[in-house]
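**User:** Here is a favour to ask of a fellow structure person. Please take any protein you like and set down a full record of it. No explanation is needed for now; the record alone will do.

**Assistant:**
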Amino acid sequence: MSDRMLSGGGEVTPDHREIDPVTGQQKGYVVLTPEERAKGFVRPVRRSYIHNTCGVSTKMSQDIAETYARDPSFYSGTFCSHCRAHFPLDQFVWLDNPDQQVGS
């Protein structure tokens, strides 16, 4: 599964991981292409997760959610909208299934 692009479209750039000092988010997030995601999902498409540390939920874009559903191990961490920082996946659970860790 090597067909990749930035969320929302566009080529992956060398600086996509630069962090915006205001939002804490990266300049761009890598996702699988629509063609790769169209091959089917191995997990349900879920858009929201909870950060165990702060207890707040974060909602992600559809293309990022579909990338998780197609390849649950694609990412090693994710963003908390409340903490405004990235953390390892073992700190997050799915909003609709709090017994399941994000990325599993």
About this structure: The chain has one domain: 4-101. The chain has a mean pLDDT of 95. The longest strand covers residues 97-101.
